[in-house]
Automatic annotation (TrEMBL):
Domain named HTH tetR-type: residues: 13-73
Any Pfam family hit: TetR_N
Alphabetized InterPro entries for the sequence: Homeodomain-like_sf, HTH-type_TetR-like_transc_reg, HTH_TetR, MftR_C
One function term, GO molecular function aspect: DNA-binding transcription factor activity
Record feature DNA-binding region, as residue ranges: 36-55
Keywords: DNA-binding, Transcription, Transcription regulation
Protein name: HTH tetR-type domain-containing protein
């Protein structure tokens, strides 16, 4: 069961998105290293202390992935008879086919920035580990099991692992929407028990 966010949560989400939008624009214009938190705060018309209420570090303003909560809600909305992996595949399809071209271009630029800044790349790898907790949470909800159940965590790890393995060039080349087709193919293999050809 999903709930509609309240006015306060919606305002916070809008502020967070605005800060990130200004930050990414400044990073594009003058470079990541040359852009300060003070400059981002000024562009977003907030104080530096307000910036840090939304983002603990400058890295976090880039690494915030607005699609994660949308994907989790989309998984929750899938029919209960779907297996966890089938629900995840359906949710990914539902979300990514609705992304407008301009929004996708902004996401591609964000991923390109992560790819080219070493400290962001390192933090993104840690985010993949944290992603296991996120996926485990929604799998556990659907299965009626605790999120620390070993089978739940193993499945969540498999989902994150095959998704990463599907895009081996993700940290070396530009992000492309077609990559999500490869992720779906990899998840289909996981759903089928990872059979090897031959």
């Amino acid at each position: 069961m999903t709930t509609t966010p309240g006015l306060r949560e919606r305002k916070k989400a809008k502020t967070r998105a605005a800060i990130q939008r200004h930050a990414l624009r400044l990073f594009q214009e003058q470079g990541y290293a040359a852009t300060t938190v003070d400059q981002i705060a000024e562009a977003a018309e907030i104080s530096p202390s307000t910036f840090f209420r939304y983002f603990p570090t400058k890295e976090d303003v880039v690494l915030l992935d607005s699609y994660d909560p949308i994907l989790i809600e989309a998984v929750r909305a899938q029919p209960p008879e779907l297996s966890p992996v089938a629900a995840i595949r359906a949710a990914i399809g539902d979300v990514f086919k609705r992304i407008p071209a301009d929004e996708w271009e902004a996401e591609r630029e964000r991923q390109e920035l992560i790819r080219t800044v070493p400290e962001l790349r390192a933090r993104q790898m840690w985010q993949y580990v944290q992603g296991i907790d996120l996926v485990a949470g929604v799998i556990a909800e659907r299965a009626g099991l605790p999120a620390d159940d070993l089978a739940v965590r193993a499945m969540a790890g498999a989902v994150v692992g095959v998704s990463m393995a599907a895009i081996p060039h993700a940290l070396e080349s530009s992000h492309d929407l077609a990559d999500y087709g490869r992720v779906d193919d990899a998840l289909a293999l996981l759903e089928a028990g990872l059979p090897l050809p031959g």
